[in-house]
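Quarterly update from the structural biology core.
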Amino acid sequence: MTETTRRGEQIPGPVPKPGPPRPGPPKNRPLPSQLNVRRAPAVKENSWESLFRLGPEATPPGVRKLALSRYQEYLEEQRSHFLGYQADESLDYRDDLSWMLGYHVNNIGDPFTDGNFTLNSKVVERSVLDYYATLWNAETPHGESPDSYWGYVLTMGSTEGNLYGMWNARDYLGGKALIVDPSGSAAEGVPPRLLLVRAKPPEDDANVYTPVAFYSEDTHYSFTKAARVVGMSTFY
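Predicted structure, tokenized:
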């Protein structure tokens, strides 16, 4: 600003003080495509996952308790919006089956042979097998006739079931059979020995006992792994 004298001279006036800065655009404003997008949080050193890292020393009881508590919170949060898989998350075994966690139960071996590991649930396993065998019109209970069945309850889901099915299909179509030792050399009171034998292919067709797996691109991915494990050829 300036002032004017009688002679018309201009002299400088006081310089105004600057006001507060005008607000500019906010920094790091998200783009429209970044709004309302849920992202997984980055793993930090002090997150609950770090509580499970094992070191040379034993985990202190307080840390162990805290880690399990945080893990439970994580499962509860995930279960509230978990979609896309055929898995029932509305489970509550605490009142009915939690007592079983105090026992080391192992159904090792043949479900129809009690075995030496007597802490098992083979009685329950045999009941489940009999039920499903009736759905396939198999004679039950197991072992009362040569036309009966054999099986076991899976522990690893459909992958193990597919592997076991392809294993048996390979042996059956490959001319193999499990038979009782025809020599009858077992001592009294000792179960007879089982032998795995294989049929001899005819000379005019050496591939008659060579099984091949056919399946579509929509088949469960475990079939490809099972075919490699049992050494079965496939068609794509």
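Residues 61-79 form the longest helix (19 residues).
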